[in-house]
Design brief:
Blueprint lengths: L3 E6 L5 H12 L14 E6 L15 H13 L3 E4 L8 H7 L2 H8 L2 E2 L5 E5 L7 E5 H5 L2 E5 L1 E5 L3 E3 L1 H4 L8 H9 L3 H15 L3 E11 L7 E11 L2 H11 L8 H8 L11 E3 L25 H4 L3 H4 L2 E4 L9 H5 L5 E4 L2 E4 L9 H5 L5 E4 L2 H9 L1
Parallel strand pairs: 1-12, 2-3, 2-7, 3-4, 7-10, 8-10
Antiparallel strand pairs: 1-11, 5-6, 8-9, 10-11, 13-16, 14-15
Helix pairs in contact: 1-2, 2-4, 8-10
Bound molecules: iron/sulfur cluster (2 copies).
One iron/sulfur cluster (SF4) binds next to helix 14.
Length: about 375
């Protein structure tokens, strides 16, 4: 049943701990056999945003990937593991984040997304999107997100992780087409998730990320894993787990605004402890959550700079490698006289630059009105 979400405490990433926890997590959902039958091609889609060590909490931990590969192999599935990283070559990202080692150890196949084909999308945004061929070729998709804050969307978890189905440079192109419209982008993510239609989502929230996620935040221990069929239902539980509220998480907000079910805990059959009992004492959301003070759209636009957070170069850290300049969707970044500059009139606040910078050289500068608003609260 799509409205069931299983939640379990898991203390750390020791192999036996994770393997036992994975079996116990899936058992109330019918076990892995409820999702995989012998001979099926099963694609695991972890978060492989960038080539960072597992303890940085940028990518899905390799022990989670290992445990799921073993589960699927035991059910007779033929496993491949794939993604299209935000930055860097898929092979080197997989090596650095430890996922390649478990692929080799288990005899699974690595599937770096390269080819994509246009597919029709239930339209509220784009009529079609180009999706990785490997996704379309699989019999079963298992979505393996890392729970992290996200400067643009609030959180990245089950729904947002499937943006990796878009290959390479097409991701910034979609950001550019969506512009500053977070609602449009969030709706596109929902439509993409519905088209990819993972059979199962398993979230790595043993160590999550708080602060300036998804690339430059801080690891935070949650000690939890969760799983379910519906990405929206899983995200509802994940949102509750970290104590965020629905309007802060754009994909959840758009799911509710468009009448999609399972955005409320009361609609979900929760198999496990109440999420609040696993919540850390504090959890720091990203800074970019914006507010509109009830202003009409024509006033929000001119006040964008004051209302919303924006990336700000840290010139001590920036080594002027040009990576962010190359990937900035509206080409709002330049390096002039050995200094990184951002044209804020063009910047669409997608935070791709912050996500991709290998040196955490882009900070978040909050809008003045937003700061004032938070102070007054
Ligand atoms: S901000 Fe980061 S990615 Fe951009 S030029 Fe500086 S070091 Fe490179
Ligand atoms: S400067 Fe950064 S946040 Fe602004 S549009 Fe470019 S990549 Fe996006």
């Amino acid at each position: 049943m799509s409205h069931r979400v299983s939640l379990l405490g898991a203390a750390d990433y020791r192999r036996l701990t994770v393997e036992h926890a994975m079996a116990a997590l899936l058992q109330p959902l019918g076990g892995i056999a409820a999702f995989v039958t012998p001979g099926q091609k099963v694609l695991l889609k972890p978060n492989m945003l960038a080539g960072k060590e597992p303890e940085r909490a940028v990518t899905t931990h390799p022990e989670i990937v290992f445990a799921v590969i073993r589960q699927v192999q035991a059910a007779g599935g033929i496993v491949s593991v794939g993604d299209s990283p935000g930055v860097g070559k898929a092979h080197s990202v997989a090596e650095k984040c430890g996922i390649m080692a478990v692929i080799k150890e288990t005899g699974a196949t690595f599937a770096p997304f390269a080819e994509s084909v246009p597919v029709h999308i239930r339209s509220g945004t784009f009529h079609q999107l180009e999706i990785a061929q490997d996704i379309l070729d699989a019999d079963v998709i298992i979505n393996l997100p890392k729970l992290k804050t996200h400067q643009m969307m609030g959180l990245t978890c089950a729904v947002k992780n499937l943006f990796g189905a878009i290959v390479g440079m097409r991701k910034p192109q979609l950001h550019l087409q969506a512009g500053t419209d977070k609602a449009f982008f969030a709706l596109m993510l929902l439509e993409l998730a519905e088209r990819v239609a993972p059979a199962l989502t398993i979230v790595d929230a043993i160590t999550a990320m708080e602060g300036d996620g998804p690339g430059g935040g801080d690891p935070v221990h949650l000690g939890a894993i969760l799983a379910g069929r519906s990405p929206i239902a899983v995200d509802t539980v994940a949102t509750e787990l970290v104590g965020m509220h629905l309007p802060q998480v754009w994909t959840q907000k758009l799911a509710r605004d468009t009448g999609r079910p399972l955005t409320d805990l009361s609609e979900i059959e929760l198999l496990g402890p109440p999420p609040a009992t696993l919540r850390p004492p504090s959890f720091r959301p990203s800074k970019s959550t914006d507010v509109n003070f009830g202003l009409p759209g024509f006033l929000q636009r001119p006040l964008k700079n004051a209302l919303t957070a924006r990336p700000r170069p840290n010139h001590q850290r920036c080594i002027r490698c040009g990576l962010c300049v190359e990937h900035c969707p509206p080409q709002a970044m330049t390096i002039v006289e050995q200094r990184l500059k951002i044209d804020y009139a063009r910047c669409i606040r997608c935070f791709c630059c912050q996500e991709l910078c290998p040196h955490q050289a882009l900070e978040t500068q909050q809008g003045l009105l937003l700061k004032l608003h938070q102070l007054l609260r």
